[in-house]
Amino acid sequence: MKLLVIGCGQCGGRIADEFARLNRKARAQRGIDIVTNALAVNTDIADLTGLSFIRPDQQHRILVGGQKTGGHGVGKINELGAEIVREESEKILEPIKTTRHFHETDAFLLVASGAGGTGSGAISILGQYLKERYVDKPLYNLIVLPFKHEEKVEERTIYNTATCLKSTYLVADAIFLVDNQRFVRKDFSIQDNLAKINTLVVEPFYNLLCAGEEKKPRYIGAKILDAGDIIQTLSGWTVIGYGKSQIPLLKLPFGAAGFREQGNESQRGVQAMSDAVSELSLKCNPADARRALYLLSAPPGEMNMSLVNEIGNSLKRIATEAVIRSGDYPREKRSLDITLILSELANVGKVMEYFTKAIHYISSYKRRREGIEYEQQGIEEALRDIPSLL
Ligand SMILES: Nc1nc2c(ncn2[C@@H]2O[C@H](COP(=O)(O)OP(=O)(O)OP(=O)(O)O)[C@@H](O)[C@H]2O)c(=O)[nH]1
Ligand SMILES: [Mg+2]
From the CB of 10, is ligand 1 less than 6 Å away? Predict the structure, then answer.
């Protein structure tokens, strides 16, 4: 599957940059392309300059709102982010249209943080334009949810995230939810953490996108997972996870020991699936998913039907309501990897929490405003009786 990736704002741009890196890796290691184009859109010139893999020209690193923001971002006002993209949409739509292999694009992936200003505001507006122009191309969004400490100190964080989630839900075919808090590594600095998080966020997409693009017969699985399967799976709120199980160097091939080895393989498969579930990009209950998909990637010699069945059964036991699609990809060398997607989630507690908190925020903001207006009136009345020297 090939994606056209557009990152909005700082967070979105950096993750789009990771997708550009992923495509380079796919080309170098596997001789295939998985990204037809990667663009970054921002109101902040410094953020665009700091990217590494997205081409360093104005067609790929697109600065918008220069006149309104002076190139320094919108300072968390996501309405302004939305307004700027509405006014300057052609600056973004034109490079998309002239992408060299545009016709090979299977879907759009737009990426942004929910809590910021530029990306949070821009993503749904841009999505709306893309939907109007390219009716048949699926539109996917990836929204990064803020860290816990950000939610505590800055009310606008919650408000932005809620408005962004609602707006994207109205336009996108599916939304990958990524919770920053799930990826925090205590022993890293903030900057290292963000870079590490971005790598972990895109990692599950590597095998998933490559599997259907393979050209070499020996790497083509018995059951290929291609763009059609992925498109059929993705709908509404979605999470993605990745699990990995190392394969020991020495294995016992014959007799009773060989039989035991087969048992170990199944165990490794189930273990990788359980890791993928616990590493999902947002904590959720698999029983809430209406659709699911998993891809097993392992050395060809490691894959057999009983392993594939065991893994499928272990998912069925927890994603009880989901239609499950699957595939195998004979690629990895020393490990057995599972990419897992749970989609059309019926009940996402974290999303509902943002909506509820945002409603509280709006009503307390109104009350505060009315209070201020009342005080203001009082001051004006009192001032009327005081003589002025002017
Ligand atoms: N995972 C991840 N999160 C990030 C990154 N950069 C920022 N964030 C998160 O994104 C939110 C802030 O949004 P930004 O993307 O910086 O904002 P923006 O879209 O550039 O908007 P403005 O700066 O307000 O114009 C916070 O919740 C950050 O924790 C990143 O590189 N990776
Ligand atoms: Mg910014």
Answer: yes
**How far away, in angstroms, is 115 Cα from ligand 1 center?**
7
At 363, the pLDDT band (50, 70, 90 cuts) reads confident
Mean pLDDT of 336-360: 95
Q: Which amino acid is at 154?
A: E
Residues 78, 164: contact at Cβ < 8 Å?
Answer: yes
Please report how many Cα atoms fall inside a 13 Å half-sphere around the Cα of residue 213, on the Cβ side: 22
Residue located via tokens 């925090």:
184
Query: What is the rounded distance in angstroms from the CA atom of residue 239 to the CA atom of residue 183?
Result: 14
291 to 143, 208, 282, 325: CA distances (angstroms): 20, 16, 16, 8
Q: Judge if the beta carbon of residue 84 lies within 6 A of ligand 1.
A: no
Relative to the alpha carbon of 121, which ligand is closest? Answer: 1
For 198, counting Cβ atoms within 10 Å of its Cβ (0-12 exposed, 13-18 middle, 19+ buried), the class is: buried
